[in-house]
Amino acid sequence: LIRMDFERSLEDYGDDSFIQYASNLIAEHDVVLLSDYAKGTLARVEAVIAHCNALSVPVLVDPKGDKFERYRGATLITPNLSEFEAVVGRCEQDDARISQYARELCEAYDFNAVLVTRSERGMTLQTREGAPLHLSALAREVFDVTGAGDTVISALAAGLASDASDDSLENSTRLANLAAGLVVGKVGTATVTRDELEGALSGTSLGDSAVEIDSGIVDEADLLTSVDRRRAKGERIVMTNGCFDILHPGHVTYLNDAAKLADVLIVAVNDDASVVRLKGADRPINPLHARMSVLAGLRSVTYVVPFSEDTPARLIQAISPDLLVKGGDYAVSDIAGHEHVLETGGEVIVLDFLPGYSTTSTLERINKSVDD
Asked: Which of 32, 49, 243, 324 is deepest in the core (most CB within 10 A)?
């Protein structure tokens, strides 16, 4: 199948009458969205952006081509990765490189923020001065990506128009990510309805193939989906980790304290193989499913997720919790994942551990009782 388009750009949409007409409309609206298809309608996009800025009306741009100078002063632009790399060079889907180049674009062209859509890798939001926000893609199945970029910027604009909070940009970006996850699960050029978005926000559906898990034992994919939905509702995430081989009052106390710091407590648990590597061949005493079941039964714990590495650093980076906590006498610099959490604007906290309790001392008492 071959599609061949023979088109001519419009010539008469840059005159003063069109600019005046657009300017009159801008004053009546909360957000302006400019979707550039390089067909001529936005021949004088600089004048529209300047008028939006004069009226303090946010202006979002879905750019076309590699001449970002013409969008100077826009509140936010939403290039896809190919468009972004055409301007800044290859990024190899590297989070740090994308956020660095996006910040440089903000400074060079006076953007407040850049949102890079990254296909199956989700999206990255970078403001001029703040920490980057990396969101995982939420779609379970991708049928058609046509119009996904239009959906992202439309949902973003709708969110900004209805949210006046300090976190409006982050909240709106999460909403846009939800909308994108819905639309790519449909065949053909499609739209997302208000009911579908409300369903995704409330956790009842993501398309027809996913149901949010409110709590309990989850795998990483389900956890990321649920965390993004909860964040879209303004909830804060606190995360901790450990082996939790024999749960004791020290664990319970610090988990209760951790849960009080945020809305959602995630406990990441070493799987059996990683416990063997860390603790020796005679551990764990309790297998993974038993350890996770006990943790999931605690009222303070929202989600329990296993990981197979020696540390949860990769998982922490994927989740980007607002707070990362450990119980005991750790130094912050010794806590796995602390660099990422601090770099993304989060907090790392060491909580007091209830004295007199530890898994090691519990096992020693058990062994002594057996020997006696």
From this structure: 324
Do 19 and 44 form a contact (C-beta atoms < 8 A)? Answer: yes
Q: The whole model's pTM is what? A: 0.58
- Number of domains into which the chain is organized: 2
Phi, psi at 219, each rounded to 5°: -90, 175
Residues 26 and 157 in one domain: yes
The answer as to whether 174 is a domain residue is yes
Of the candidates 85, 138, 89, the one whose C-alpha atom is nearest the C-alpha of residue 116 is 85
Last-in-domain residue among 155, 175, 202? 202
Last residue within a domain, chosen from 135, 169, 202: 202
CA dihedral 194, 198, 204, 209 (to 10 degrees): 40
Residue at 243 is within a domain = yes
User: Within this chain, do residues 49 and 80 fall inside the same structural domain, yes or no?
Assistant: yes
Between CA 281 and CA 285, with CA 283 as vertex, the angle to 5 degrees is 145
Distance CA 278, CA 116 (A): 39
Please confirm, yes or no, whether 257 is among the known catalytic residues: no
Is 8 a member of any domain?
Answer: no
Residue 144 burial (10 A CB sphere; 0-12, 13-18, 19+): middle
How far apart CA 59 and CA 71 sit, in angstroms, is 10
Residue type, 91: C
Active-site option among 95, 144, 150, 272 = 150
Contact 81, 116 (CB under 8 A): yes
Chain segment 282-316, per-residue pLDDT in tens: 889 899 988 998 999 899 999 999 999 999 999 99
Tens digit of each residue's pLDDT (9 = 90 or more) over 219-271: 888 899 889 888 888 899 999 999 998 888 888 999 999 999 999 999 999 99
Task: Give the pLDDT confidence score for residue 71 in this predicted structure.
Answer: 96
Range of the domain at 290: 218-371
